[in-house]
Amino acid sequence: MSKLYFYPLFVVIGACSYGVVSTIIKLSMLDGFSASEAVTSQFVMGFMLAVCIFAVQRKKLKISGIKNMIPVGILTGMTNISYGLSLNYLPASLAVVLLFQFTWIGMLISCIAKRQFPGRAEYVSILLLFVGTIPAAGLMDVDLTKVPLQGWLWGLGAAVCYSLFLFFNGKANPTMTTSNRLVMVSFFAFITTAVFQTPQIVWDGTLFSDGLWIYGLALGLFGMILPVYLFSISIPKIGLSKSSILSAVELPVAMMVSVILLNEMVTLLQMLGVVIIILGIFISTLSGKRMLGNENKERSFN
């Protein structure tokens, strides 16, 4: 397999790991914890995991590129906070659809930053993602007239934060190792989350005495370590536009994991939506070699 195809694969794996997060949070809630406590545990344990990985590698901690890591960490935390707040006003299906607006938002940010139009395959992929996401999320039977404005704002805010997270995380930083990036990003994500969530779980015994750390460990691994590590390697190689499309695999994975671990029901219409999403991702993946090897052929604003 050409090395060119490993980078899209890394993005897909990172997005798949994000898809597991929602189910783990639901499992923690079934065990008596709140969503806020689960999210906080994610970043506490994620930071601890990042420190352990860095310590094992025995490399010197560098802060020369810290200014690039601050927005990545803050946006990581804000994505989870915004998405969690949107669930207070929205049905889960609509919250997912709003979050997945990061596909076209990410493409828009990429166009503005690079002053380039995406290729034809990316336009087709975005269209298929739009068509597939609504039935896949089970949104066909939702009454949108009763959705409050706060829900729309928090849901779209989560999408914007996630798009910007992909953008800043994709900036190459040759002076800083990947494990160094993990420590910095996880630290600022933890600080951001502690300000808005429930930091008291660290000292009141909830995290370690009550067993929340088990869920936090899983959330830290799948919601912090793997995505940040893989995205930092792959996004600088394939670009934000393509990465945004490939990250849409998160929705089908979230559905499959919820069916397996939570015994949730999936309709035929939802399955059809998932197939359409996968088709859109597949088309984008097929264009990977062209995008990586022939970026100079893309149309430019100039």
Write structural notes for this entry.
There is one protein chain. This protein is mainly alpha-helical. It has 13 helices and no strands. The chain has helices spanning 6-30, 35-57, 66-86, 92-99, 102-114, 120-136, 149-169, 178-196, 212-238, 240-246, 250-262, 268-286, 288-293. Helix 5 packs antiparallel against helix 10 (240-246) and helix 9 (212-238) crosses helix 10 (240-246). It is globular, with a radius of gyration of 19 Å. The model is unreliable at 291-302 (pLDDT under 50).
| Major sheet description | none
- Terminal CA distance: 35 Å
- Rg is 19 Å
Q: What amount of the residues lies in strands?
A: under 5%
Low-confidence runs: 291-302
Features:
single chain; 302 residues; mainly alpha; 13 helices; 0% strand; disordered C terminus
Short characterization:
With 302 residues, the protein is an all-alpha fold. It has helices at residues 6-30, 35-57, 66-86, 92-99, 102-114, 120-136, 149-169, 178-196, 212-238, 240-246, 250-262, 268-286, 288-293. The two termini are 35 Å apart.
Please specify the SSE layout and strand pairing:
Layout: H1 6-30, H2 35-57, H3 66-86, H4 92-99, H5 102-114, H6 120-136, H7 149-169, H8 178-196, H9 212-238, H10 240-246, H11 250-262, H12 268-286, H13 288-293
Helix pairs in contact: 1-9, 1-11, 2-3, 2-8, 2-9, 3-7, 3-8, 4-7, 5-7, 5-10, 6-12, 8-9, 9-10
